[in-house]
Amino acid sequence: MDYVTLNNGVKMPKLGYGVYQTPPEETERCVLEAIETGYRSIDTAQAYGNEEGVGNALKKCGLPREEFFITTKVWITNAGYEKAKASIEESLKKLQTDYIDLLLIHQPFGDYYGTYRAMEEAYDEGKVRAIGVSNFYPDRYLDIFHFSRIKPAVNQVETHVFQQQKTAKEYMKKNGTQIMSWGPFAEGKNDYFNNPVLKKIGEKYGKSVAQTALRFLLQSDVVLIPKSTHKNRMEENFNIFDFSLTDEEMKEIEALDTGNSLFFSHYDPATVEWFMSLV
């Protein structure tokens, strides 16, 4: 496994396993199969409703806790210092662990300043090894970066071949924050798995479109957490360290970037109203 060193010296696997939209009743099985495959980084969130399944798998797998890198996120209904502080304790309980490796603010809504203060406190107390944000666009990211005492180690944002976050990456790199991808396959949008560029390049190496796309992100210094509930796909997604794309191939895939989200925009008032309806 390859690792990236975060801005506080903590090492994080470049490839992990995500459990977004994994049903709570299937999470334990899926995470155990991911662990069997070789994954040691697991990404969950309070909003996913499956932290317990991740915790059960960690307990049952038989491996020591220090072999794993566990990420979870504070949801907007827990925004603010007091609520966030309580929710962090609840996440620790559900995950059945004394510490979280990476804790993120899930969305830049509500009192995220208060949330971040609670996260900084948890970091100081050793309950969290690294803290950061998720879905923070460059403007909000720069806001929290300059506001915070402990600078964000990670910003997890929609990142795939059609939305490569080139501008956001510039600011994160400048300020020492690691970009982490959610939705590396864009949930199949834009006929993702039939893309002719990815197909052509993948065939050269005997790799699938998915593996080619993940390799591109890996070589673009993006941390990955692909998700699948099928073990054969978990294995396929894990098998991306035995080939490298050429500079020319990287440029071909870079040209697929549209610079736009395939899901939602925080600059869209209707989207913001929808998030607010959840609070």
Can you tell me about this structure?
This protein is of the alpha/beta class and 279 residues long. It has a single domain (3-277), classed as NADP-dependent oxidoreductase domain (TIM Barrel, Alpha-Beta Barrel), CATH 3.20.20.100. The chain has 11 helices and 9 strands. It has helices spanning 24-37, 51-60, 81-95, 112-124, 138-147, 166-174, 196-205, 209-219, 231-238, 247-254, 269-277, and strands at residues 3-5, 11-13, 17-18, 41-43, 69-74, 102-105, 131-134, 154-158, 178-182. The strands form 2 sheets. It has a 7-stranded parallel sheet with strand order 3-4-5-6-7-8-9. Strands 1-2 form a two-stranded antiparallel sheet. Helix 6 (166-174) links the parallel strand 8 (154-158) and strand 9. Helix 2 runs parallel beside helix 3 (81-95) and helix 7 crosses helix 8. The protein is globular, with a radius of gyration of 18 Å. 44% of the residues are buried.
| CATH hierarchy, class | Alpha Beta
**How much helical structure, as a percent, in the residues?**
40-55%
Number of strands: 9
**Largest beta sheet, briefly?**
7 strands, parallel
Low-confidence stretches: none
Residues in β-strands, percent: 5-15%
Helix-strand string: EEEHEHEHEHEHEHEHHHHH
Integer average pLDDT: 97
User: Per the principal axes of the C-alpha atoms, what is the gross shape?
Assistant: globular
| Radius of gyration (Å) | 18 Å
What do we call the CATH topology? TIM Barrel
Question: Order of strands side by side in the largest beta sheet?
Answer: 3-4-5-6-7-8-9
CATH architecture: Alpha-Beta Barrel
Ends distance: 39 Å
Superfamily (CATH H level) name: NADP-dependent oxidoreductase domain
Q: SS-based structural class?
A: alpha/beta
> What is the tally of helical segments?
11
- The overall number of domains is 1
